[in-house]
Amino acid sequence: MGRKIKVIGLLIAAxxxxxxxxxxxxxxxxxxxxxxxxxESVESELQSLDxxxxxxxxxxxxxxxxxxxxxxxxxxxxxxxxxxxxxxxxVKIIKDKNKADKTREAMVDLYLHKHEKEPITEEMxxxxxxxxxxxxxxxxxxxxxNFSGKDVPLLKELIAKDDALxxxxxxxxxxxxxxxxxxxxxxxxxxxxNVAPKDKVSAALKSTAKYLKKQSPTPNNDSKAxxxxxxxxxxxxETSNDGYLKDSAFFAVSDxxxxxxxxxxxxxxxVDRELKVFAIDQNFATLKKMLQTNPTESDIKVAVEAMxxxxxxxxxxxxxxxxxxxKNPQLKQEAKDxxxxxxxxxxxxxxxxxxxx
Length: 357
Prior knowledge:
Blueprint: H1 2-21, H2 29-35, H3 39-48, H4 51-62, H5 72-80, H6 87-95, H7 101-114, H8 122-129, H9 135-144, H10 152-161, H11 165-177, H12 179-190, H13 198-213, H14 220-239, H15 243-256, H16 259-267, H17 273-282, H18 284-292, H19 297-309, H20 316-322, H21 329-345
Protein name: HEAT repeat domain-containing protein
Keywords: Signal
Signal peptide: 1-25
């Protein structure tokens, strides 16, 4: 019953938006019908509609409204009746070009919700291969489905054929199922930055960072690969006029959670303070390890500069021990000042990043 009340509450809230908008109600006879009802009547109406009727209501609204908020109550009501909706019915609607994109996307959401603990079904794979299914719908499928190793050929095909969000999400999914294959494709994309679509570049940056993070830091090849990746990323950060690519490059570098990456972030004049603070928060364990593993004065200076920007109390002891080896008087004083700041105003290290892959 609590769930039903929540659904009704969503509907009333959505319809209130229509009233406040003044002219929006005139766009949809379906919404106007519900505006004339009180809460009890709305609840009764939603309960009385079968799944086909609910889908008709969803499509009527989706065809006239630009935002999702007015769809939410109706979609929620349909989700309540998910066991009464056949997969074949959902697939038929997803394929139907006469249905609004938002309707088709909502049916994808419901289908995936019904199969949320299962691998992607053959029905969904066929939709991804179909030329009759548009990019928005395919993107929704790729982003939400569960892929496995046997789906690598399909994901590679989607990456090769698409230049936008389908490729972006396909490469992200491939990095989960076969990181080495994703890294190979990402390397090729990043070696052709001048012609590669930005969504592919963004996914390639993220995928490469994820792969390199899991590699052992000792082999020379891996060390060179990280150095090359940092050079590519900082070239984008420093020279690109595209904010989307600049941000993608920064977050990929921060995701590496490596000492080299943190040094370049802290020392860079092209990374603003807010982003540096984000990286410090994400990489506090990296900074701690750097301070505890025979740090050079250069390492210590990076940690001190980081703590000036975003003091973390958990690193105070490690910095105190590290500064015992410092001979530079100025650096020693800066370290002392930073330690005082950390003890007086420092926050706890954000442990949520310790569980991230």
